[in-house]
Amino acid sequence: MILLDGKKTANDIKLEIAAVVQKRKKEGKKTPHLAAVLVGTDGASMTYVNSKVKACQKVGFNSTLIDLPEDTTEEQLLHEIADLNKDKDIDGFIVQLPLPKQIDEQKVLMAVDPSKDVDGFHPVNVGKMTLDLPTFLPATPYGILELLERYKVETSGKNVVVIGRSHIVGRPMSILLSQKRNVGNATVTLAHSRTHNLKEITSQADIIVAALGIPEFLTGDMVKDGVTIIDVGITRVEDASKTRGYRLAGDVHFESVSKKAKFITPVPGGVGPMTIAMLLKNTLLACKNRDKK
Predict the structure, then answer these.
(1) Which residue of the set 96, 116, 251, 281 is catalytic?
(2) Residue 116 has pLDDT above 90, yes or no
(3) Are 165 and 256 in the same domain?
(4) Are 125 and 96 in contact (CB under 8 A)?
């Protein structure tokens, strides 16, 4: 069993990006600039945004954090987005989800300039991804592709099952792995909460991407020997034996599944760090695209 170490791979990518940024600075080119908009005080979102800011510092990017109160109106947030769209120094920005209930997430995502949408969520970028045109790939699926490529996991002709159909992970992942690309050319089944005979389907899979948000859902009796497992989930599970009162669990029951897997991502330290690394990669791409304008 080989651990797909997202933490180490993400650090490798950050070093590669840092070298490119250093070269750009020496050549007098623009320093990439990533902005993040955070609305409210959701603990997980704050942690995630802070790690993005730290990652920017590590690779030599400029970064801006726009921290808005929980009671921010939709109109106020749309005004902030309009300012970021116009700001020539900002190459890319993200609006951290989830947003408070008074704000329509779809309306906010639609308001982001597609050329600055480094999360890859705007319909223009989703459409380009679907048509296999150059664009910003959603950071988590992009990170999974990169992990599979760097560990030389063969996907061509393989039977892949993606569990979960979210617009952020499941659906784009199923599209990308079925496309003609280095990490692709797979036969993909997209499963979800309404799928019948799921165990029958997963037990035939060569690669499983678990992205449904239910802790330890995928168990050892649902997979075959030699399977590759990508665990996207991360949930706090109460655990009195831990000093902080909880442990972090993925969507995969690691203990039973790892006994059968050839490759498997750990939680934490698997997909999570890759998501941030690919966000940086998208921001660098946005900056390079602006060089051409």
Answers:
(1) 96
(2) yes
(3) yes
(4) no
